[in-house]
Amino acid sequence: MLLREAVAEFLGTFILVFFGVGAVHVAVLTGALPGLWQVASVWGVGIALAIYATGSISGAHLNPAITAAFAAFRKFPLRKIGPYVFSQCLGAFAAAAVLYGLFSGSIARYEAANGLERGGPGSERSAMVYGEYFPNPAIADDTGHVLSGVTEGGAMLAEGVGTALLAFFIFALTDYRNSGRPGGTFFALFIGLAVAIIICIVGPLTQAGLNPARDFAPRLFAYFAGWGAVAIPGPRGGFFTVYILSPVLGAIAGAAVYQYVLRPGLARIPSSASAAPAGE
């Protein structure tokens, strides 16, 4: 039933954003997660839990870019794309609202301590707990990283490559023909681990969005919560090209590499021995 699948996508994306974006809140505002790996590992575990909770109902896409890849290569019905993407964005927006309710006081104190006027120049340092920026404002501030060192084109490449790797691993880890994939439902843990290691590489460049719903919906919330143009379109622009377009194109490219380069070399399993997963 499509409604139940949409609800599962809403809840799964809510879980993903609550823990993942919540980890960014904690890292930026409190310093309690001081390293990139600490934030990345929370993201990974949150994603695995979201998949375990909702995967049997909706397939746990939780990401418009992955939905696009499944539509392109796994026969995901086109009529479901709209409801899935809307539910993913709604879940991400709801999680951002809950996080604001929890951390609004901490955000205000952080802004006051750092001389930031919400919506003014430099306030992407607090807005980054919702939407994403290139390069990562926290790392750029701590290391003196030059802003021009990550151009819009470079950021697009980073998000595209990161999401391509994510889609590649998702297709490999969930392919019933791949005898090397983890047994049972352990694939969810490895998908979470894949996200964590991708964040460790791409995070300093773009904050590693890899998911248009994860970026756009919290960014939209930040727009209405007072950050205005700092949230959308952002001080350097690129929110559409870097965080929406590039992940979608990257996911399709990564899935295509698996589907057309590796999968043809896998042994075929007789239909009587193993049924293909839904959407295969």
Description:
It is a single chain. The protein has 10 helices and no strands. It has one domain: Glycerol uptake facilitator protein. Helix 3 runs antiparallel to helix 4, helix 4 crosses helix 9 and helix 7 packs antiparallel against helix 8. It is mainly α and 280 residues long.
Helix and strand layout, with pairings?
Layout: H1 2-30, H2 36-58, H3 64-73, H4 81-113, H5 124-127, H6 137-143, H7 152-173, H8 187-206, H9 212-227, H10 239-262
Count of all domains: 1
Terminal CA distance reads 18 Å
Structural class: mainly alpha
In the CATH hierarchy, the third-tier topology is known as Glycerol uptake facilitator protein
Mean pLDDT value: 93
The number of E-state strands comes to 0
Give Rg in angstroms: 19 Å
Shape: globular
In percent, how helical is the residue content? 55-70%
Number of helices: 10
Which key phrases capture this entry?
mainly alpha; Glycerol uptake facilitator protein; 10 helices; disordered C terminus
Short structural description:
Helices cover 67% and strands 0% of the residues.
